[in-house]
Amino acid sequence: MAFDGLFIHSLLNSVAPALVGGRLSKIYQPFNQDLILTFRKERKNQQLLISANAQYPRFYLTKQVISNPDKAPTFVMVLRKYLEGSVLQSINQVGVDRIINFCFSNRNELGDQVQLDLSVELMGRHSNVILYDQTSGHIIDLLKRINPDENRARILLPKAKYELPPLNPGLNGFELTESDFNQEMADCEPAAFAKKVGGLDRDDRDELTGYLEDDNTYSTFKIFMQQFNKSGAFILKTPNNKRKIFPYLPYHLDLVQESTDSDLNHALDEFYQYQSNRDWVKQKASQVERIIKNEQKKLSKKIIKLNKQLNQAENSEGYRIRGEILNANLRQVKPGMTKISLPNYYDNNQPIEIKLDAALSPARNGQKYFTRYKKLRDSIKHVKQQIDIAQNNLAYFDSIQTAIDNAEPQDIDQITDELISQGYIRRPQKQKRRKKITEHNLNKFKLTSGKTVLVGKNNYQNDWLTLKKANKTDFWFHVKNIPGSHVILQDDHPTDADIAEAAEIAAYFSKAKDSAHVQVDYVQDKRVKKPNGAKPGFVIYTGQNSIEVTPEKDRVLSKRID
């Protein structure tokens, strides 16, 4: 289900007690549409994530560690000026709509008490976060400034009067009396009544319709509504394996229960973690991906051009043959000729046409063919070397793209550092000191046998894991001839089952993650070496064995540990 009004009502049952009365101590905007507000209450910190993302606008308490960017956007600077250090007085939902007001109390520069509202509007592509003064009703600033010609319903700019968006609230199910219910139901079917109730998305309307079709009474309606006064969560799957989250367990929808969670915030944190990570990585890696695509495009064109040159060089015998035939028949060449047909004694004296430069003598024309032949033959070794270099560089950028596909937001900084060190990105004047890689940076998995598997998420981590972290007797895994993560099984005598599970993890964290029958090489770490001058992440190894696996996402990620 979507973040509809009744879902928000359920969520506030746990968010409000955790935050109201707390002091707002930290505000930052890690990504374009996302804010993190840290509250201090009862000697504990609580992180509130607010997202105005058009596809999945949301808010909830999060445990995720999200880095604070070096430079704060304008909106964050305004929020810090007006809200940092203020006390959250209350959280109010507008009816059962997708608008939530966080009401703060603070003092201005003159020491006067001021009341400020941070209004969070979760309305698809119209989602926004707006800071306004309660007393004057004027907007101080907002996450998305909208030009008047883009929104004629209201003005969404600083200093404008704050107005609610046009709403179609419908019936408030929490306030509906029995007589009102009976009156509404007197002349309509359950499905039509469900459409009149505000704050419901399609799934909730279908579920309410099912309740009322079973028993068309006010008590049944109240039972349905009371489910939104709880704070637990249920994760369910559709027939096509799409995951949905509910604050109650629906009985009338075609869904299969996957899991439950007593904490709705925790469930939301896990539910959105993968999708939000993908979105955040995409935002943070946009510059890197642009460079990668440009380099891949240039290298692909270069390889095509070099292969054409190599093919021409390897088929250059025609120049030598023409030169020899021309030298053997110099007397037949007349001044001013641009071409001549002579018998080819390499092909049963069949006529061969030879182009001539009218400005050169016959002997010089023959020498020109020999020079061309020698130049092409001599270029073969150089062209092959250039093809190898270009193919290795292309494989390197494939490995960078694979690392981005498997990355979490905090990993992008290391990938950017790598491209800076390789000269593909200009080094900033004030570059942050590179953080030391530790085991905490890696992905960690526990196999069925209890043994630990470590997975690098980028080339720097791969090098550190393979060359520094791993014991020489540990087993090293990598997909065969495909970009992917280095994987270390921390054991010197793994069973066949251990090898199969570790290989599946290696296959999943590679470019072949969506493929079947993936070949994975494995060998003891002591047999893995890094050539001098090799690019980050590139190693060579000998004495390996191979295993064929088919990675399955759910099976792999179920073994992951924090």
Produce the secondary structure layout.
Elements (H helix, E strand, L loop, with lengths): L4 H15 L3 E9 L2 E8 L2 E8 L6 E5 L11 H10 L3 E7 L5 E9 L5 E9 L6 E6 L5 E4 L35 H8 L4 H7 L5 H13 L3 H9 L6 E5 L5 E4 L9 E6 L2 H21 L1 H29 L2 H12 L10 E6 L5 E6 L6 H44 L6 H10 L21 E4 L5 E4 L3 H11 L5 E5 L7 E3 L6 H13 L9 E7 L3 E2 L10 E2 L3 E5 L3 H5 L2 E2 L1
Antiparallel strand pairs: 1-2, 2-3, 3-4, 5-6, 6-7, 7-8, 8-9, 10-11, 10-12, 13-14, 15-16, 15-23, 16-18, 17-18, 17-19, 19-22, 20-21
Q: Can you walk me through this structure?
A:
The chain is α+β, with helices and mostly antiparallel strands and 562 residues long. It has four domains: 5-142, ibrinogen binding protein from staphylococcus aureus domain (ibrinogen binding protein from staphylococcus aureus fold), CATH 2.30.310; 178-279, no CATH class; 290-403; 439-561, no CATH class. 37% of the residues lie in helices and 22% in strands. It has 14 helices and 23 strands. It has helices at residues 5-19, 74-83, 178-185, 190-196, 202-214, 218-226, 264-284, 286-314, 317-328, 362-405, 412-421, 459-469, 496-508, 553-557, and strands at 23-31, 34-41, 44-51, 58-62, 87-93, 99-107, 113-121, 128-133, 139-142, 233-237, 243-246, 256-261, 339-344, 350-355, 443-446, 452-455, 475-479, 487-489, 518-524, 528-529, 540-541, 545-549, 560-561. Strands 22-19-17-18-16-15-23 form a seven-stranded antiparallel β-sheet, sandwiched between helices. It has a five-stranded antiparallel β-sheet with strand order 5-6-7-8-9, covered by helices on one side. Strands 1-2-3-4 form a four-stranded antiparallel β-sheet, sandwiched between helices. Strand 2 and strand 3 (44-51) form a beta hairpin. Helix 8 (286-314) runs antiparallel to helix 10. It starts with a helix and ends with a strand.
